[in-house]
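Support case: user asked for a sample of complex input and structure output to validate their parser. Sending the pair below.
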Amino acid sequence: MTTSERSTNYRVIGTRPVRPDGVEKVTGKAQYGADVRLPGLLHGRILRSPHAHARIVAIDTSEAEKVPGVFAVVTHRDFPAARDVVQELGESSVNAMELSDNILASKKALYRGHAVAAVAATSPHIAEEALSKIRVEYQVLPTVLDVRDAMREDAPLLNETRFTKELGGARSEKPSNIASHIRFQGGNADDAIAGADVVIEREYRTKMVHQGYIEPHNATASWNADGTVTIWTSTQGAFSVRGQVAEILRHPISSIRVIPMEIGGGFGGKLPIYLDPVAALLSKKSGRPVKVLMSRTDVFEGSGPTSGTWIKIKLGVKDGKIAGVKAELAYEAGAYPGSPVGAGSMTMLAPYAIDNFQVDGYDVCLNKPKVAAYRAPGSPAAAFALEQALDEAARAIGADPLQFRLDNSAREGVRMVTGAPLAKVGHEECVQAILDSPHYKSPIEGPYRGRGVASGYWFNGGMQSSVTAAVNPDGTVNLIEGSTDIGGSRASLSMQLAETLGIRYEDVHATVVDTDSVGHNDVTGGSRTTFASGLAVYEAGMDIRRQMRERAAREWNVPADQVEYEDGRITWSDGAGNSRETSFAEQARTAPQKGGPIVGKASLSARGVGGAYGTHLVDVEVDPDTGKVTILRYTAAQDVGTAIHPSYVEGQIQGAVAQGVGWALNEEYYFDDNGRMLNASFLDYRMPTTLDLPMIDTILVEVPNPGHPYGVRGVGEVPIVPPLAAVANAIADATGKRFTELPISPRRLVEELHGLA
Amino acid sequence: MARRTYVATTINGMPTEFLCEPRQSVLEVLRDELGLTGAKEGCNNGNCGACAVLLNGQVVNSCCVLGVELEGADVTTIEGIADGENLHPLQQAFLEEAALQCGICTPGFIVSAKALLDSNPHPDEHTVRFWLAGNLCRCTGYDKIVRAVLKAADASGAPVP
């Protein structure tokens, strides 16, 4: 692993301390959602539709209610009527009526695995037994499972009252599965492509894939007689859960307390809720706390994967420059609208300066699970298409693929397809870092070996954060925050507070608290936490510094604006030989006698988000007999702004690369014609193991984000954008065949290489 | 409800007795009956390794062994890996190498890796990867996990063959 030389004088930022929650996690003491144990706890289980598209004619729960040990049964009838309002989830949004209908189906089951009823019983086994006694009468309907098929006028309709939201707010004449059509346009793409030296025109497809977090969804709820509700759950955003539950149950927000447990991975998949309102209603009906867990099959069939896609690109190159691009993107939304096609359309061209473009996006409903966010949602599939087209174009003009990208790179001031100009960004630096890397300078030789590169972009997010930092008399600080810690943010936030205050990392104790105990925090999503909650931590630290300077100024009888705070030292000097000095530790120790507790606070809606770029390089070897692809070497360069804790920044990149490699080579939802997922287990849904990957080298390029005091950019999402295309480009280099459909599985490779397709 | 069976076993060095239904797995017994929630359920069918424990020194997925099979057995769970306040070298190496992000797979990895180092104190990278291929991690890409196991092996002080 390579880490760039650091040019700053930070004391804490850039070091690699042990994370605050580490010991609990290596000793098995950390409490995740499924670990909740309460007196009188009941166990809930969910009944799911065996059909991908069916009208629910009747549900009879009477036999289930008679099973000894069963305390409550709920169906959609137990939900209040939902409002037609949109809830923001961070990287996605959801209509409350559709969310309610997705949590427990009302009139129709829209995908196999759609929840229709739930039972609470004294043991999970009894709950499962009772589920088998619920009789649901279905009227099975024709299914539509392919995004292109779903767009046809004669396709089975999931919702007969849905019309396409067309450009300019118009509405389609007939009902359609296409929920919306968007377009981004600039210059004249048709003319530019017509005048190009080289034109590449291709169609690409990717399959529905799952985030693959190891911890299944869970929710435990306790409903009190006074209407107060407590929910323990593993989520990317406790406040978001609270808001969604309040909306679905039409319950006052302040009566709901969400206690975030440790979370076993999310990647966007734990932004929406599935179980929480069900657990709450089961608790209300039974009068006991209820824990509902998903099985792994439930997770695959009943949570939110990301879209399968169809993308068409026509790209023209003239004089070594990208002259124009036309693209159409159709993304599967699943059962309800809300695919990430907007983000895919906006990010696709973002690494490059392209004047002439037309990008059309379609959000398409079909009989598959409602998609959720998955790490840079929408962007990986878009990059899979564009970065392969660029690879072909570079080959056609005899250009080095990296130099071609450098020659066409976006930079500060270049407008994105939305018209917004880029701030200071580091794409060129990433490409250059790969060009200069030992990996790129090494030869790649041998039959069926190849090398591929690709770039990618992600916006990153800002949104709302609140923190409290309470100074203790012994000079330590309790940092109270509300951002789910998925990958080390307690460490990265503690480090920023220690840096701001000039104290030791070990003297900051960070805790993620429940929704009653801190101001609002948006989700841990959009790669926002280290940036936006980091900004709040910085502001809270500055608040402490201000209070300490003011106390010192009062004591010394000097103007506060003449008192300096640096590295934990508080000083005053009049420039004529008179000076005074105290310290953070001294102020902390004497606070009880000198004005009382010192507490820093900050609540903000973060501005100054820095978008991020990455460029990846991969060498592969293809076995032409078995179709197995071996990743020989992988190097990922990324503009990380400033790496607060470099190990966890590297970890984000390495983990995203692994997910991207799995997406490229093996992972897919494999459906039969009736919409039944045939590989809904970790045996058959083939995620990368230790044996499938080499060490993953990272190059942390640091182009500080001018919108953050320490230059932080989000780092977690952009590294999943390039791998799909980088691997495909490497396989094309190794085999001479262009694979435009994912996954490039052993079967697909063997069929293609031996002409069996 | 099925009749419950009395089982006498040893868990983390402590003689332990419990009653369990014939259908309950070791994972269920550990988590629901004995309050040992360090072993995690990721799949409940032996594919993810998050529930790994040592059964008579061998790594098993505790979701795939029945509770009644623990009669007379010796079980080590993640809660029994550290020696009191002294972390096992694997635990220390996982912390220092940042070998965990969400941490849900970590107990399984540490238990599996312990079994490896107990039988092979100085494995090479490929051996580590081969041994740990039954444990899924979705956060780290495995890079830092493999490095941590190799580091723990170096730190163990076991003689190099």
